[in-house]
Amino acid sequence: MEKAKRYLVFLVGLFINSLGVSLITKADLGTSPISSIPYVLSLNFPMTLGEFTILFSLLLIFLQLLILRRDFKLEHLLQVPVSIAFGYFIDLCMVLLSFVRPHAYPVKVVDLLIGCVILGFGVFLEVIADVVMLPGESFVRSIVFRWKTEFGVTKVCFDVSMTVIAAVLSFVFQGQLNGVREGTVVAAILVGFIARLFGRKLEILPRVLFGKKSGESTEETEQPGEHVCIVIDRQYGSGGRDIGRALSQQLGIPFYDKEIIQMAAGSTGYSQEYIAQREEKIAGALLHDLASEMYGYSEQTPAPTDAIFEAEAKVMRQAVQKGDCIIVGRCADVVLKGRAKCLRVFLHAPLEYRVKRLMRTEGFEEKEARRLLRQTDRQRAAYYQYYTNRAWGMALHYHLCIDTSQSEAWAQELIAQAFQRMREE
């Protein structure tokens, strides 16, 4: 029953996908990168956009066979009927949208943006259905599998290549650029971001449609374990790491900070340096989704930031199963919800105090210290909000909010007392 639901959702997503492609095309500002070559060909030969889409998809499937060779599986052949359906869906939608003939540039832009939203939602439905991939994505995955490239970079290179080839074909056949315009670039940037946005805002939809996966647990039904975990969120320069280590020695329980990076490195395949440069660092949710081309990833091939987050979350869950512990940052309060008693602590201090502390402990010049303080706090706040949908540092999310400029030893003692009290409950 669930499999049938998934295929139904996929077909709905495929039709919505084709509707988005058709509307983007009708906007007359270019089309999506994956459709750019079929579109240019349809402008110069007596075949429809949908028919050329089918032929182009079959070519990509054949190229996958050459790339994967023995690793090409029978399930890859499901792309053939999907490609045929997608092609005919596009032709059907082009007929349905035959009344769309915008002439004014602003109207074209509006049609383009609406098409991007529709296409993004279609991509979202195809991803959550998780039954079969379209030839474009599957072709990229074949390259990643064979040559061990990074999926996101390969996907962007693929989109750029399709656009460039389409532009070259346009000049060859017509002597001018036709079929590839600013709308192609806009679609390449926005569709992925929109699909990712739907994924974040409608994250409950897969559970509603398909139910809980086998072996999956939910925070709402899981009872907290008997162990207590001190979770320390901290402003940069407030002394959170030093206080955490001192608490570890005082209470005789493990302390996890950089240790989480070391343990996560083994499960992700990324180096410790790579993880250290990317964990707890997001410039902002919108910029992050746009820059990362996040829609190109799935549960099977997560984006690097997501892979690091999940690997570190797994390390933290394993840590609390072993006993009481202290964990610094990394959204541990939300990750461990329902799995342990969490004493949630936020450490902060006035800017001037933190500037002087960094100058003293790290040897930074004042200007550099101020820059790092503002940058790091912004990144930590954006990271926390991105993965928890909560405001970082808001008092109602913590048991203790402590100004460490009063005394780090005093802050340590307050946390130790709260830990003992929670331990006795």
What does this structure look like?
This protein is mainly alpha-helical and about 425 residues long. The protein contains 18 helices and five strands. It has helices at about 1-25, 35-40, 50-70, 80-95, 105-130, 135-145, 150-175, 180-200, 205-210, 240-250, 260-270, 270-280, 285-290, 305-320, 330-335, 350-360, 365-390, 410-425, and strands at about 230-235, 255, 325-330, 340-350, 400-405. Helix 2 runs parallel beside helix 7 (about 150-175) and helix 3 (about 50-70) packs parallel to helix 6 (about 135-145).
What's the SSE blueprint?
Layout: H1 2-26, H2 33-42, H3 49-68, H4 79-96, H5 105-129, H6 135-147, H7 151-174, H8 182-201, H9 205-210, E1 228-234, H10 240-251, E2 255-256, H11 258-268, H12 272-278, H13 285-292, H14 304-322, E3 325-328, H15 332-335, E4 341-348, H16 351-361, H17 366-388, E5 400-403, H18 408-424
Parallel strand pairs: 1-3, 1-4, 2-3, 4-5
Large-scale geometry: elongated
Helix content: 55-70%
Work out the helix count.
18
Major sheet details: 5 strands, parallel
Report how far apart the termini are.
Answer: 45 Å
How much strand? 5-15%
Spatial arrangement of strands, main beta sheet: 2-3-1-4-5
